[in-house]
Amino acid sequence: MSWWQTFRDRLASLRGRPALDALLAHARPDHPLAERVAWAEDLFAWVRRDAPATRLRLLLQVLERQPGARQRVAQTFRSIVRDTEALDLFADTGLPGGMGFMRELLSRLVSDVLPNPPETRDLADIFDRLFPRGRVADWLEQLDAEHAAQILDLFQHGELPEEGGWVSLRTDLEDAMVQLADRICVVGSSREVRARLGKASFRELPFQKLTPAVEALLARRQAGSPLSELAAELNVVRGVADACDRAMEEVIGCLEKTGVSTTLVYDIERLRAQVRRLELLLEAWAAPALEPQRKLAILADLVRQNHARRSVRELCRQNLHLLTRRIVERNAETGEHYVARNGREYAGMLRSAAGGGALTGFTTLVKLLLAKLSLAAFFQGAFFGLNYAVSFVAMQLCGFSLATKQPATTAPALARRMDELPSAPQLEALVDEVVFLIRSQIAAVFGNLALVIPATLLLDLLWKFITGEHIVNEPKSEMILGTVAPWSGCWFFAMFTGVLLWLSSLFAAWMDNWFVLHQLGPALAQHRGWQRWLGPTRTRRLAMWLERNVAGLAGNISLGFLLGMAPTVAVFFGLPLDIRHVTLSTGQVTAAFAMLGGAHFWMLSTVWIVLGILGTGLLNIVVSFSLALFVAIRARNVRGPELRLFYGALFKRLLKSPLSFVLPVGVVQSNNHGSH
């Protein structure tokens, strides 16, 4: 239920709802339809309050003791069904419309705020008003057979001859089946879907066969054939619906490999919901004498689907799930390169991080020199971002690494291994992987810091030799040291920087998805202009290089400008935000100490500065890693019991071999590591 409906219900309860006796007395089948619907809405609201199942039983007991009230209530309910149409209830209610993601999102946001129409002949609108809460479905399914039968009997109690023909639900149900089959055929046969179904003939698509199968079934029934003789036609419809499901799974599998289109994902979700609704209607149509509990279960399913499809949160979750999974898969592939599983890879990580630290020394020099120019805030942020971006891209091209960039890509690599955790060997293998990952991050941080300090000192000496002065003056040095002390807010800014690190990994994977979705690699390889300019061979090589590196380039460039521009944008909005990146901060602190001299380094305040830098590095990693892991777990649907098993095993490993989390010792590698 939306927040607006919750607010309205609570406001109404404060004003006082009518008592049950007053509600039953106001049941009038001869009143205008709008008044009858309002009465039914009040009655259902009374039932939903507090304990719905208990209140429903009380209502049924009161009606048993008051035959007159029971007769009026039954006639009023029948009159509502008689004077309304159920086609949209069966074919539309709870299903995504054909408006596309953005229009559907806007429609749902508006529908949460606008009031319901006061008078309508559409039973779907009345259905929304009677069941505004999704949890109604739970207690409807929990009703026992006796009370379910009493509810259904209420609709037929005291039926008079002049009320004949009040039930048009079966005709509307058949019309809804045909309408759904037509819609499935149109969307399922679209160009975007067919392009991902191999070389299947258009007329052989299962979506094309659905409408003829449904019409053949209904034609046999209208010709007078009993339901018992329609088994063959029913099986044909069910078989075609299953084939449609398999075709949609094939499309989804293709999306995960070749890139995700949000519009197509929305269409697939709409197809799935429509096929599921058609199967539900087919069950109700083929067995009109269903048990009362099963009929209420179908009603509950309609309620649940209705609220799932009206929920803004559910719409975003469904449409972004595959895109998120694609991001996770791409980052998992990238993250595999940042996990050191043995001593040789651990040493390689240290060397790679050391190179990144050396380059960061140059980045620090340029950043401090740019700060001296006293540029306007926007241009200063833009030049800072350009400096970072060029530095990060250079690291990528040289094969170096920046420690805090890695967790956002290594976390999905970890979540990939959470798919199957029940067995002990798999659990141990996952714990091994976490140990490898943590110590790889520690190695990367210390590799960065080990070289950024001497690189910055050497650059400061060179700058002093050329210009006769240090990179920064004394007041600037004091200010830099003050910004990394724990009480300066640097740890909060470090967490904010961790969020930016995570966002850059999302942008990198999104760009990779966009590049693959639009098949830019093959398109660039066959581009006639490029081929005339570079030659066919070089053009193909360039296209292949871009396909391999587009994610890294996008991530590095976006991270650079996020770090450079975020403080400028924050100041524009009056927000006290800044960035604190462990390697960049260490470079600036080194430049400050180079100015102040060695004596200043041995002061007590240096201890707090070191603690501030270490805390900054820890928070950079923890925040970006946690966000990436959370998204990866949600995208892969890892369940709570599996997570608890994993956390318990990880804690045991920490107690058993704490040193293995820092150095490449004490962990027995599982055989399946090499497979990744």
Category by helix and strand content: mainly alpha
Give the number of DSSP strands: 0
Low-confidence stretches: 9-16, 669-676
Terminus-to-terminus distance: 44 Å
Main beta-sheet strand count, sense and barrel state: none
Rg over alpha carbons: 33 Å
Helix content: over 70%
Shape: elongated
Compute the average pLDDT. Answer: 79
What is the H-and-E element order? Answer: HHHHHHHHHHHHHHHHHHHHHHHHHHHHHH
Beta-strand level of the residues, as a percent range?
A: under 5%
Helix tally?
A: 30
Structural write-up:
With 676 residues, this protein is mainly α. It has helices spanning 3-15, 20-25, 33-48, 52-65, 67-82, 87-91, 101-113, 123-130, 136-142, 145-156, 169-188, 191-194, 206-222, 231-258, 262-286, 292-310, 312-335, 343-371, 377-398, 407-416, 424-467, 474-483, 490-517, 520-525, 528-534, 536-572, 582-596, 598-601, 605-635, 640-656. The radius of gyration is 33 Å and the shape is elongated. Helix 20 runs parallel beside helix 29 and helix 25 crosses helix 26.
